[in-house]
Amino acid sequence: MRRFSSTLLAVTTVLALASCARPMPAPTEPQPTVTPSQTVTPTQATPTPTATPDPIDPKVEALLAAMTPEEKAGQLLMVAIRNADGSALPDALATIHAGSVLYLEYGWTAAATKPISDMLNAQPRPQGIGLWIAVDQEGGMIQRLAGEGFSTIPSATEQGKMDDASLQAKWTAWGAELLAVGVNMNLAPVADTVPADKVDSNAPIGQLGRYFSTDPVLNGHKAEAVIAGLTAAGVGSAIKHFPGLGRVTGNTDYSAEGVTDDVTTANGAYITPFTEAMQAHPTMVMVSVATYSLIDPSNPAAFSPAIINDLLRGQLGWRGVVISDALDAAAVEDVPMAERGVRFIDAGGDIAIIPDVSDAATAHAGIVETMASNPTFAAAVDQAVIRVLTAKLAAGLLSE
Question: Which terminus of the chain has fewer CB atoms gathered within 10 Å of its CB, N or C?
Fold first, then answer.
């Protein structure tokens, strides 16, 4: 696997979907609690005007023109490597043309991981397009690859106590361990802010020590350091879980209860760490499956045009890849699997994480069928594929 281009900025210079420009409600948001030891004062997120789309790279344009609908849909799916030898994945790559895979089990050593990455990279690649091989390697309780060949990474809360330069250097070393086993994408860092008085009641982030700090500005600085370290190691990054999972009580993976955030606003302080982290040019922004009642009370974030198109792409100016949190989550269990990928792409998303291969096949069929019957959706798929291929071009994942 080749290392990332030194011009990682190209990842973010992709063709953005036109913003729907719907009015965004902006009630007054309570300011986050800052512990006495912290001196940084949270600030409101500064909106960024939507930029004029850049020209499409000729290589990306040629690839798009040569792809079948099935191949396009496959580039917009990430499936999980669950069994110890990765034997289920070749079929997924062949039948649904999955463009991304994810190590999702815990405790795999370097010796167990590298042969699977090598096997996946040896599979036939539609149009010569390489794979994102990803992992959740945050540290603490969320470290999927561990044991011989991998350092023990402290929790984000412990990482938040390091100075930025030290944290960046640590992540350069930890990222190099990932790249050595064929992992070229880390679904990290977490940029969510948990208010100090909500740490114990916040199941997805606070209780698991997945936050750097209870201050959003400091969170943004730490996230930037992690991104810079991974970039230096040649590994992509994905800041998550936009627009933040720090103010819910339920874990969206396991519960449909307690997953509505009634605090976060489109212009509020809790958006700050994401806007800060975007300045370090991560490869992707991951969108949560919680619901944000003050931004879009009708849709989980991953299915919300108001959050992806209007806020993230329009107001904040993000022009790169948007990836979903896992769409097999309990928080979206009332949406048929065949509709989940469609709704995510229709809202402005690019790569849908659907871990189970059979579920991913169902979602893939839904995307292809909707493309055939809905020209507007087919155009949205093309734009998503352009963003994915542009990021892969910058990462050296397209054939010469």
Answer: C
Dihedral sign, Cα of residue 5, residue 348, residue 80, residue 186: positive
Token pair recorded at residue 23: 């009015």
Strand, coil or helix: what is 189?
Answer: coil
- Percentage of the chain exceeding pLDDT 70: 86
Of 7-11, 267-271, 283-287, which gets the smallest average pLDDT?
7-11
| Structural domains for the chain | 57-394 (3.20.20.300)
Give the number of other Cβ atoms within 10 Å of residue 379's Cβ. Answer: 12
**pTM across the whole model:** 0.87
Q: What are phi and psi of 241, to 5 degrees?
A: -120, 95
The token pair at 320 is 């790169």
Question: Positive or negative CA dihedral for 28, 34, 38, 39?
Answer: positive
Extract the tokens encoding 116.
């699977």
Angle 163-166-167 from CA coordinates, rounded to 5°: 80
